[in-house]
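Journal club side-thread
Mid-discussion, someone asked how the predicted structure for our own chain would compare to the paper's figures. Pasting it here so we can look after the session.
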Amino acid sequence: MAVVLDSYVKRCAAALEEFAGQEACGALGIRDNVRGLLGTLARIDAVVSHEERRRVLSSRVDAWVVLLKDVMYEVDDVLDVCAAEGAKILADDHPPAPKVRCAFMFSCFRYSGPQKFHHEIGFTIRDIDIRLREIEDEMPPLPAAGASPRPGARRDWFNSEMSRSCHDDVVKPRAAVGTQVQKSLGGLVPRLLREGKKKVDVFAIVGAVGIGKTTLAREIFTDERMTENFPICVWVKMSKDLSEAAFLKKIIAGAGVNAGDTENKEELLGLLSSALSKRYLNLDGTQLSDLPSSVGFLVNLQTLSLEGCQRLQKLPWSISELQELRCLCLEGTSLRYVPKGVGELKHLNHLSGLIIGQDNNDPEGCDLIHLRAMSELRYLQIERLDRATSGASALANKPFLKVLHLSEQAALIEEEENEEEQENQEGAEKEEKDKHEVKSAQWIRDDSAKVSEKIWNELTPPNSVEKLVIKNYQGRKFPNWMAGPKLNTSFPALAFLDLDNCMSCTTLPALGRLKQLKSLEISNADSIVAIGSEFLGTTVISQAISFPKLEVLKLRNMKNLEDWSLSVEESQILLPCLKSLHIQFCPKLKALPEGLKDAALCDLHVEGAHCLTEIKDLPKLSDELYLKDNRALLRISNLPALKSLTIDDCAKLKHVSGLDMLQHLRLVFPPSTETYYFEELVIFWNIAFPRWLELLIRLQANGLRRFELQCALPLLRSCLEGGKNWHVVQQIPEVRITSTDGKKYIRYNKARRIYETNAQCEEKST
């Protein structure tokens, strides 16, 4: 722990020395006080840094360490307050007015004028200096040369620290721990410290009573790596009856701030922001309608999250004063624009929900040009690119950018909205108006497409991007940086690509050339009628493998897609790593491509493909086939490795064969289909299973382990013991049948001799 303390003392001393040389320190009139404190801190640092002192402090219980650590936290707090107050004084040509209390400004000092504040902060610094000198005098002497620490001595500061910060949350002193706890500790701590895509990581430690869950949590909490990276750590004991307000108050108390009697969530969040030294402010999902300009005084703020604040329409200009800001989250707000001063936040590494421009072309809104200085960005989400004036060099000088979301406003489709009105019009007037509206709409789309293509062609994302999302693109051709033989050179690290609502594009880029691509999702591409070899990038002779690392492919809501071909030469390899394929709501798709037969698919999901008549010849499909609402599907055949099959509302299915390894079968028969579902099916008491199902179960008698059925009551009752379909049910080791409304059921397990139902009595009474 002394090593951690040594690092913390050095950091405080460096921050204090930097502040002493700033204008804010002179404006407050406390430079001499700061220098005096710095001298005392330097002497203590020299002693703590001594190697022999480190060994002594690490080997025995020493209240001196606890006292010094407390004072170091106070030094850190005072520096934050001084920085904020000094910035306010420098921002104004006149002395600061009395403070107005608001949810975003908290201070350790209240004053009626600058002189009173100068005296108060001066006294506080001198008081800290005196306490440090007293601690210095009480410092234990160094042992004589060759002396060894007292046998059995150990650190036991954890319990005393936690009793002060958490009050009623008692944590037992550290004891010996087992090898399993140490192993888990070594795995969890690095995961907690790593930088990931999530802003907050949550880890749950679960298990039976007495296996060491609390011990492991305590070891993580007290680990030196955690205390080095997290200046404020709070241990909170949860209970089932703990309210959200009480939970927040426990965290605030653990961080050293008294929350008083307030139960208001927004006030508590503000107090928590203060407790975290004004470095973190999360207002996600609140009813906030206006962010006050005083937020600009939080000069140490590093994270400001406003996600889901649907009433928030404007940001203050003072947001540009938050020069230490690393993370700004604006997604899900009702902002009309973002001030161009955001471009001055050079240290931002996460920026989401950035709205470009302004509806009336007012220069106050942030444009792409204002992003040039943000060279440290890792995550960038841009919206309303349709309002950009220029895209040139906007994404240049961003060597660390990993995740990029680009979006325009969705094109408005007025045809359906005007359909009812048009039906009420008659004669030549209606026809003439229709022609005029069609021409006007076409001109608007043409202009939008040209403007969109120009802006997007100028963007040129950096080659460091690993995830790219393109949404609501209005151009007819994808941007130049997504086309041509150099696509892989432009995106050598791209692993995740999502193309959503690119409704005017008629062809797809040669995405098969992306060597690192693992996940590809294409949705709402209404103008694409066919997918062919251009998608694979096979026109390049040297390209031997298409999609060499692609694992997940999803095609969704492509309402005009009819043909999909994956034809390749014998010397070429196609989709060698594909594991999951989802085809959803492609109503005109006629067939699956033959090229899929060589793909080592684990799961295939086909839904809403109303022109698809058969699924066949997928010898490597292994884990699951999920079929739903495919109205023309007639045949399923030659899937010899398939283990699980789900069929939901495929009304015309008549043939199922070649499923040699099938273990799990799940069927869903919606009530509306039972009047016409199968040729041999008659509703009510003469109801029967389809022939293909009886044949499949007979052929798979030794392999099928589980059968699930969801259906209307007549079919369910036919499966009761002694019913028309009982001879089919009793052959299967495990059966679960439920009614459509979920109220009635049959449960059967052959090996365990279990037969349960709540439909028997009703059936007899009828």
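Post-session note: Residues 1-155 form one domain.
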